Structures are given as structure tokens and as C-alpha cells.
Amino acid sequence: MSDSVGERSEPRQNRADQLRDLIEEDIASGRLAPGSRLEESALAERFNVSRTPVREALAQLASAGLVEMRPRQGAVVAVLSLDNIIEMFEVMADLEALCAELCARRMTPEEQARLQAAHERCGAVSDNGDVEAYYQANREFHDIIYIGSHNRHLEEMTRALRNRVSSYRRLQLRHPGRMRRSWAEHDAIVRAIIAGDPAAARDITKRHIAIQGDTFTDFLAALREARLDVA
């Protein structure tokens, strides 16, 4: 699929919104790491648009906390402090736990089947040891849970915060054995949701997301190994 955004066929604001979504996906997927420069001219050339909608898209991303505007550097992918990362993961744990709780109460049989299928894909990928492939399958798994909450506001809040910490969240998967542990935790979440047990779904999911105990030390080790920017 081409990156081009049709400048003549769409209003400028629509183009800016499209660009925002495309750049946000690059950040969330890890293609753009924290600290990466976002040059207006390069983005305009890549997406085949003028610099005006690029500038508007970057302003939107800055308002959402995904991009920083730095003097003499311009726009860069936001770099979080360790304290901010930990605080955001605390909130993520509660938001995702609520999503899972609501899934146990509201998910349709068709949605449960999609969740089970996504869980099985995660398992197949984890057997191959492919961190990047597992991360993408893991995002799909969690997206199904956000949607299955049947609470659009909660879904949007959870996904927005997930995108802000995604580059750091994916680091956890690099630690030896983490993918298999993640898949086992997914299995417990799926079982609780399908069993219609909201309390178990909430508690298991919160433990799955939270950075605490051994998970915290593993996370710090992954940060050092990756040398990922931390403010």
C-alpha cells in the first residue's frame, strides 16, 4: 500500500487527520522510536503532500503527548522519563483491567471466538521466538479486548495511552522467556473472559500489565540493553 495521501481529492484538515493516524501508527508499532526526528520536508515527500498538513498533524500529535517540539530540532517522537513510564503503566493496568472486566460481562460469542483465535496466533508466534511478530499479534489481542468492552470512551482512552508507551512496552518482550509468560497470562485472561468471571478477568489483566517486582527489574534490564531514550 502506498504512503501517499491524496492532496487534491481530500480537504486539508482530513489530510492532516490521515497523516496524524499514519504517523501515530509508526510510533505505536515501533517503526519510529522515542527521540526520532520528524522532519516536515521528509514526511511531506513520503506522503506526497505539502508541508502544511504535515505541520498540522505534528501539532495534533504533540497535543496528544506523542511528539515533542524541541528548539532547533523541531518535532521528535516523545521521550518519557522513567517516572512517567511507571505512572503510565499503572494507569494502563487499571484501564486494561476494566476492559477485561467488561469483556467478561459483555463480549458476544463471535467476539470471544475472535479473541481465542488471536490468542492462538500469539501462541504460534511465541513458539518461533519472533519478538516483532509477537508484538504485532499481541497488539491485535489487546485491541480485541478494548473493543469487547463495548465502551467506546474506555476503548479510545486505553488505546491512546497504549500508543504513548508502546515503544517501552514492547521492550518487555525481549527479556528471555517473557513471550511465553505473556502467552500464559493471555491464556488465563481468555479463560476468565469466556467463563464470564469479571473479577478474575480484571485481576489477571492488571497483573499482566503492571510493572512491579521481577517485571520491573526485567524492564530496567531491557531498557539498558536496548539503550532506548529515556528522559
Task: Supply the key terms.
10 helices; 231 residues; mainly alpha; Arc Repressor Mutant, subunit A; Four Helix Bundle (Hemerythrin (Met), subunit A); globular; three-stranded antiparallel β-sheet
How would you describe what is shown here?
- The chain has 231 residues and is mainly α.
- It has helices spanning 12-29, 40-47, 51-63, 82-106, 109-128, 131-148, 152-169, 178-194, 198-209, 214-226; strands at residues 37-38, 67-70, 74-77.
- It has a three-stranded antiparallel sheet.
- The longest helix has 25 residues, at 82-106.
- 35% of the residues are buried.
- Keywords: DNA-binding, Transcription, Transcription regulation.
- Residues 13-80 form the HTH gntR-type domain.
Helical content, roughly? over 70%
Bin the strand percentage. under 5%
Strand order of the largest sheet: 1-3-2
Query: What's the Cα radius of gyration?
Result: 19 Å
Poorly predicted regions are none
Kindly state the mean pLDDT as a whole number? 87
- Total individual domains: 2
Biggest sheet record: 3 strands, antiparallel
Instruction: Name the shape in a single word.
Output: globular
Structural class by secondary-structure content: mainly alpha
Stated plainly, the CATH topology of the largest domain is called: Four Helix Bundle (Hemerythrin (Met), subunit A)
Distance between the terminal alpha carbons, to the nearest Å? Answer: 35 Å
CATH second-level architecture of the largest domain: Up-down Bundle
Order of helices and strands: HEHHEEHHHHHHH
Q: State the helix count.
A: 10
Total strands: 3
Query: Which homologous superfamily in CATH is the superfamily of the largest domain?
Result: GntR ligand-binding domain-like
Assigned CATH class of the largest domain:
Mainly Alpha
GO molecular function, one term: DNA-binding transcription factor activity
Protein name: GntR family transcriptional regulator
Pfam families: FCD (PF07729), GntR (PF00392)
Keywords: DNA-binding, Transcription, Transcription regulation
